[in-house]
Amino acid sequence: MSDAYVVGDPDGLSPLLVALRDTIARELHAQLALRGERIELADLPEVSYQVTVQVERALHAWRPGDSPQ
């Protein structure tokens, strides 16, 4: 059982995973907006790169006890 369930987090994710989930969702939303609500197969490498950059930033900014932004 993870600590998330012990502390009553309703989605069962640790604070770090919540921050990563939210970061990925924000970047995917931005990429979809830039690309007219559609990501072409040929665009996947660039979209993946941008998501990775945002995850790296979130990991560097994240500290235990921080709330997701």
Overall description:
- The protein is mainly alpha-helical and 69 residues long.
- The protein has one domain (13-61).
- Helix content is 61%, strand content 0%.
- It contains three helices and no strands.
- It has helices at 3-6, 15-34, 44-61.
- Helix 2 runs antiparallel to helix 3 (44-61).
- It is elongated, with a radius of gyration of 14 Å.
- The mean pLDDT is 84.
What is the mean pLDDT? 84
Derived structural class: mainly alpha
Strand content: under 5%
Label the overall shape: elongated
> Runs with pLDDT <50, length 5+?
none
* Domains (count): 1
Give the number of DSSP strands. 0
How far the N terminus sits from the C terminus, by CA atoms, comes to 26 Å
The main β sheet shows up as:
none
Which key features would you list for this structure?
69 residues, elongated, mainly alpha
Helix-strand layout with pairing:
Elements: H1 3-6, H2 15-34, H3 44-61
Helix pairs in contact: 2-3
Give a nutshell description of this structure.
This protein is an all-alpha fold and 69 residues long. It has helices spanning 3-6, 15-34, 44-61.
